[in-house]
Design goal:
The protein is of the alpha+beta class. It has a domain of 40 residues. It is 47% helix and 21% strand. The strands form two sheets. A three-stranded antiparallel sheet has the order 1-2-5. Strands 3-4 form a two-stranded antiparallel sheet. A hairpin with a 3-residue loop joins strand 1 and strand 2. The C terminus is likely disordered.
Length: 126
């Protein structure tokens, strides 16, 4: 979902114009950005929190020329999903795992990448 899809969903759900929905979303994002600039934590209960992490300067290396370069310190936003968001996401995943397992057996812990690797080997051997 991108910003314009979020605006459309907001305007449909609340019956406001897309212009007004865009203004509301922009206001929310601007306020969150300003709070993060001030070093404040932004928390939306049930969704997650945003903090700014400070990373120090360090000596890096140009991979092409192997030359040592100085990389300046930086501040980057970090998002941590809330418990409710994680639970909602996993509610949709759990039924798929249970359907894929055989009756009476525990759900499979096999990932999509494991299944892909198995299907790439036509001989069935490792």
């Amino acid at each position: 979902m991108n910003k314009s899809e979020l605006i459309a969903a907001l305007s449909t759900a609340d019956g406001v114009s897309e212009k007004k929905a865009a203004q509301v979303l922009d206001l929310i994002l601007d306020e969150m950005t300003e709070a993060l600039k001030r070093g404040e934590r932004v928390e939306i209960r049930g969704f997650g929190s945003l903090i700014v992490k400070q990373y120090p300067a360090y000596q890096g290396r140009n991979p092409r020329s192997r030359e040592t370069i100085s990389v300046e310190g930086k501040r980057l936003p970090h998002f941590k999903a809330g418990k409710e968001l994680r639970a909602r996401i996993n509610e949709r995943i759990q039924p798929e795992r249970e359907r894929a397992s055989e009756p009476g057996q525990p759900p499979s812990t096999e990932t999509d990448s494991d299944r892909k690797m198995d299907s790439d080997d036509p001989s069935g051997t490792d």
